[in-house]
């Protein structure tokens, strides 16, 4: 017998386990539901009217010379995409006398040779583009950006990751927001080159649309801090220096410097009306590489900047948003724990004589998922998706979020426990079929966990049906779909040749033909 306070004295082992399961389930839900409600608050903030962006670009008007801009292209083993990246950067609509392009190359494969050859071809067309190759990848992306900044000549710095293919007008559309000297960074939204490749890419596209159209927009219009997304953003060089420069002590150097810059007094501007197309990870393995880095790095950044931010004299609303934003990845282990507790807690209620609460799981499922359905449906409407496309996208997004909870929990916990994993960049294919740096060869780390969690959910479903716990089935079904879809790799695209053609067509439409390489 075990003494359990509040339950009238001694309980048997079964009753004690039941109390533990029900209590843990209630605790996890209590911690998770505010995250869902927080999304709705950002949705409401995102509906505010955005300020005008009609100001003249710096260096234009009044007879002054154009602004000097440095474009930084950090790359590492990107042989499938480096040439199209350089082509897109060299076609940016800005006077070539005031445009410097730096290819910040840490590669160990043929990417360097491809970049050097392409840069040489563009220099023949009087474009200032150089390849800066580092033999040692010290500081990873943050180290490359810091090294490039030492020789940068621009007053403004545009950063583009290797999977991005911006249109020629990106700079001229972002520069007007820099007319206010207090603005330190202007962020464009991400568009999607290969959204229609599979359910996985469609789900990611909707997740990103929700992030830019609603989360980032809500923070921006609500006067909260929001972050530079690592790419497709224009920085004022002075703001980078004033914030302390690029630092590599977290895996999310972009999130880190964003908060340091805003805490130093710099304003950020979101231009969600300006899109920069990019390639989405097209396999569970590639996506996992990206999401693990973001999850662990987000927690590392929270540990680094939150203590100072919370002590600073900022508004309570700003501090609260920063806390929820930086701690948002904690939802992954909480969600994973929830999936493991669904059926045990239902059986525990039965053992404790609480069968009359059978409807509780169904009510909690609706309370937990409805805010996300509303949120991502709104994001889909902003993108102009059809009703059918919206329904499929929201379903895929919910399943993907549920499935990733198991795979990302370890990264979050390692971030909390001060582990420092190496920076692993997201594999990219450029429509080539499979990246040469693709972690999916021979499976991927986490597949066993995803399949195991999926099987556990199937067994839980059988137990729930046998026990008449019908209210648990929606939760069980959602998690089973998410875990098994990622575990079995059902995100494999239906036709890579069609995808490659689709991407190439999008790139050619936005950038035109490439120069002859020498």
Task: Give the secondary structure arrangement, pairings included.
Layout lengths: L1 E3 L4 E3 L1 H34 L22 E7 L6 H9 L8 E7 L5 H13 L4 E6 L6 H11 L5 E4 L10 H5 L8 E10 L6 H23 L11 E4 H6 L10 H11 L3 E12 L5 H28 L4 H11 L4 H21 L8 H24 L3 H30 L30 H20 L6 H15 L8 H16 L7
Parallel strand pairs: 3-4, 3-6, 4-5, 7-9
Antiparallel strand pairs: 1-2, 6-8, 7-8
What does this structure look like?
With 518 residues, this protein is of the alpha/beta class. The chain has 2 domains: 16-46 and 329-502, no CATH class; 69-283, Spore Coat Polysaccharide Biosynthesis Protein SpsA, Chain A, CATH 3.90.550. Helices cover 53% and strands 11% of the residues. The chain has helices spanning 13-46, 82-90, 111-123, 140-150, 170-174, 199-221, 237-242, 253-263, 284-311, 316-326, 331-351, 360-383, 387-416, 447-466, 473-487, 496-511, and strands at 2-4, 9-11, 69-75, 99-105, 128-133, 156-159, 183-192, 233-236, 267-278. It has a 7-stranded mixed beta sheet with strand order 5-4-3-6-8-7-9, sandwiched between helices. A two-stranded antiparallel ribbon has the order 1-2. Helix 1 (13-46) packs across helix 6 (199-221) and helix 9 packs antiparallel against helix 10. The chain starts with a strand and ends in a 7-residue tail after the last helix. Residues 435-442 and 490-518 have low confidence and may be disordered.
């Amino acid at each position: 017998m075990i003494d359990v306070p509040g339950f009238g004295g001694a309980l048997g082992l079964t009753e004690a386990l039941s109390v533990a399961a029900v209590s843990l389930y209630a605790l996890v839900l209590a911690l998770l539901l505010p995250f869902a409600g927080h999304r709705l608050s950002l949705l409401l903030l995102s509906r505010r009217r955005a300020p005008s962006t009609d100001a003249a670009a710096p260096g234009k008007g009044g007879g002054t010379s154009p602004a000097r801009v440095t474009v930084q292209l950090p790359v590492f083993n990107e042989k499938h995409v480096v040439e199209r990246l350089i082509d897109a950067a060299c076609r940016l609509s800005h006077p070539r006398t005031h445009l410097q392009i730096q290819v910040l190359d840490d590669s160990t494969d043929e990417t360097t040779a491809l970049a050097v050859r392409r840069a040489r071809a563009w220099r023949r067309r009087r474009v200032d583009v150089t390849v800066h190759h580092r033999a040692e990848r010290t500081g990873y992306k943050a180290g490359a950006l810091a090294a490039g900044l030492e020789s940068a000549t621009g007053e403004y710095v545009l950063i583009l990751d290797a999977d991005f293919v911006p249109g020629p007008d990106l700079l001229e559309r972002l520069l007007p927001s820099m007319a206010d000297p207090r603005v330190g960074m202007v962020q464009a939204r991400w568009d999607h080159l290969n959204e229609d490749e599979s359910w996985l890419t469609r789900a990611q596209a909707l997740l990103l649309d929700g992030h830019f159209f609603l989360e980032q927009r809500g923070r921006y219009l609500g006067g909260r801090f929001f972050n530079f997304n690592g790419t497709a953003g224009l920085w004022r060089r002075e703001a980078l220096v004033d914030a302390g420069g690029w630092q590599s002590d977290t895996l999310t150097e972009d999130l880190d410097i964003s908060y340091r810059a805003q805490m130093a007094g710099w304003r950020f501007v979101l231009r969600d009306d300006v899109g920069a197309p990019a390639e989405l990870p097209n396999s569970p393995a590639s996506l996992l590489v990206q999401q693990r880095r973001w999850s662990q790095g987000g927690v590392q950044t929270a540990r680094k900047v939150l203590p100072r931010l919370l002590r600073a004299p900022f508004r309570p609303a700003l501090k609260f948003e920063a806390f929820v934003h930086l701690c948002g990845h904690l939802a992954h282990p909480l969600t994973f724990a929830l999936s493991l507790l669904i059926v045990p807690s239902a059986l525990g209620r039965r053992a404790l004589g609480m069968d009359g609460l059978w409807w509780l799981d169904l009510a909690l499922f609706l309370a937990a998922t409805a805010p996300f359905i509303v949120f991502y449906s709104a994001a889909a409407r902003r993108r102009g998706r059809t009703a059918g496309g919206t329904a499929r996208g929201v379903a895929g997004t919910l399943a993907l979020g549920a499935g990733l909870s198991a795979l990302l929990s370890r990264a979050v916990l390692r971030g909390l426990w001060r582990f420092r994993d190496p920076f692993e960049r997201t594999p990219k294919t450029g429509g080539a079929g499979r990246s040469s740096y693709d972690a999916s060869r021979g499976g991927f780390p986490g597949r066993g966990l995803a399949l195991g969690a999926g099987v556990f959910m199937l067994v839980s479903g059988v137990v729930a049906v046998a026990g008449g716990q019908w209210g648990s089935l929606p939760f069980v079904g959602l998690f089973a779909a998410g875990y098994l879809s990622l575990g079995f790799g059902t995100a494999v695209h239906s036709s890579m040749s069609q995808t490659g053609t689709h991407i190439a067509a999008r790139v050619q439409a936005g950038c035109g033909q490439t120069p002859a390489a020498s």
